[in-house]
């Protein structure tokens, strides 16, 4: 009995020691210990928090809506819808279009600040190219909201699709089409966070599915995305005639890739895009090379942006990250989106 008691006592001591060890982290004995000031701790806490506490805004709210470019239908729709929602909420609205130039969009943001905007919604911007303009605006008390423009230090809220999840869906569809084996061409560039995310997903999937061989990577960009994709894909297909799928990052690339396939008679190659361009929707409906695309739920997103502006106006806590929902479009639901898109284009005289 005594032995049993001692054994139980030892077991308890060992268990307690293990639990205590699991709850502590031992630092190397020779590592220097740096003291952190109260101010640094407070700054770190504020930076890492998912929500921001703000003071109520003084005076009337004036909202600037700044977009990088309007070539993609998704951009035109969100630009127009955002302005409509701002005005419907009773706020004064100013809007600018940089025509695809990051430098111009930075200038636009600076001008909106000078014109009295105390909230600026940045649509589809170049993250790195806007860093200084956003920092300067924030230093003057302007709330900057990033919508598909990446995380930029100084912003009050960040809206974006989960482009890693979207990319995984896009490229898993194509990998499945080719039986996870064969040659592919990939397109993309590094000038926008959404595109970078999808390119990173391409690379990750190629590591996982080693029987899929990337024979050529086409670097696109803006402006001239479709033409860059067409020229690159046409040349790559001539050198690699056994390609089965083309992994594009968005619709303007997909259209150029599809045109190159058609020009070379490669009607069996499959492609997936993103953004819901009308010509892509027609390709999906007609069973051509492009088999899927996606669209962001812009109605829900713009409503959420307006709610965030109202919270900022009232000085309430505001979450930093807001995930934008999106919808995949395939042959099963493409007719609905063709009808919606044709209606939008007709209303806007396009």
UniProtKB/TrEMBL annotation:
Where in the cell is the protein located?
Cell envelope
Can the keyword Oxidoreductase be found in this entry's annotation?
no
Quote the biased-composition stretches of kind Basic and acidic residues, using this chain's numbering: 35-55
Keyword list (alphabetical) reads: Signal
MF-aspect GO terms: carbohydrate binding
PROSITE patterns referenced in this protein's UniProt entry, alphabetically: PROKAR_LIPOPROTEIN
- UniProt KW Signal keyword: yes
Q: Name one GO cellular component term.
A: cell envelope
Q: Which residues form the signal peptide?
A: 1-21
Record's InterPro entries?
A: Peripla_BP_I, SBP_2_dom
Q: Which superkingdom heads the taxonomic lineage of this protein's source?
A: Bacteria
Q: Where is this region: Disordered?
A: 25-57
Where in this chain does the record put each Periplasmic binding protein domain? 75-316
Similarity comment: Belongs to the bacterial solute-binding protein 2 family.
Protein name, please? Periplasmic binding protein domain-containing protein
Q: What organism is the protein native to?
A: Blautia hydrogenotrophica (strain DSM 10507 / JCM 14656 / S5a33) (Ruminococcus hydrogenotrophicus)
């Amino acid at each position: 009995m005594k032995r049993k008691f001692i054994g139980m006592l030892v077991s308890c001591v060992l268990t307690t020691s293990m639990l205590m060890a699991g709850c502590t982290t031992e630092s190397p004995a020779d590592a220097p210990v740096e003291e952190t000031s109260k101010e640094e701790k407070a700054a770190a806490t504020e930076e890492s928090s998912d929500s921001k506490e703000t003071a109520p805004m003084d005076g009337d709210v004036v909202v600037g809506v700044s977009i990088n470019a309007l070539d993609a239908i998704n951009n035109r729709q969100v630009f127009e819808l955002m302005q409509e929602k701002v005005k419907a909420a009773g706020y004064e609205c100013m809007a600018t279009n940089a025509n695809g130039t990051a430098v111009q969009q930075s200038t636009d943001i600076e001008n909106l600040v000078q014109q009295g905007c105390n909230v600026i919604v940045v649509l589809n911007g170049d993250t790195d190219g806007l860093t200084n303009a956003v920092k300067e605006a924030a230093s003057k008390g302007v709330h900057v909201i990033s919508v598909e423009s990446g995380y930029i230090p100084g912003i009050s809220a960040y809206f974006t699709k989960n482009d890693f999840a979207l990319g995984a869906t896009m490229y898993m569809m194509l990998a499945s089409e080719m039986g996870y084996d064969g040659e592919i061409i990939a397109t993309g560039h590094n000038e926008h966070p959404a595109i970078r995310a999808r390119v990173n997903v391409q690379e990750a999937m190629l590591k996982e599915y080693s029987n899929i061989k990337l024979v050529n990577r086409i670097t696109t960009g803006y402006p001239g995305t479709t033409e860059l994709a067409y020229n690159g894909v046409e040349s790559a297909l001539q050198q690699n005639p056994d390609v089965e799928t083309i992994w594009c990052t968005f619709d303007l690339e997909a259209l150029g890739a599809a045109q190159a396939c058609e020009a070379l008679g490669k009607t069996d190659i499959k492609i997936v895009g993103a953004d819901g361009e009308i010509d892509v929707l027609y390709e999906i409906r007609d069973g051509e090379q492009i088999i899927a695309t996606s669209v962001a739920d812009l109605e829900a997103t713009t409503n959420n942006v307006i709610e965030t502006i109202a919270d900022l106006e009232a000085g309430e806590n505001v979450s930093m990250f807001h995930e934008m929902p999106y919808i995949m479009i395939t042959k099963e639901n493409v007719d609905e989106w063709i009808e919606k898109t044709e209606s939008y284009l007709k209303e806007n005289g396009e």
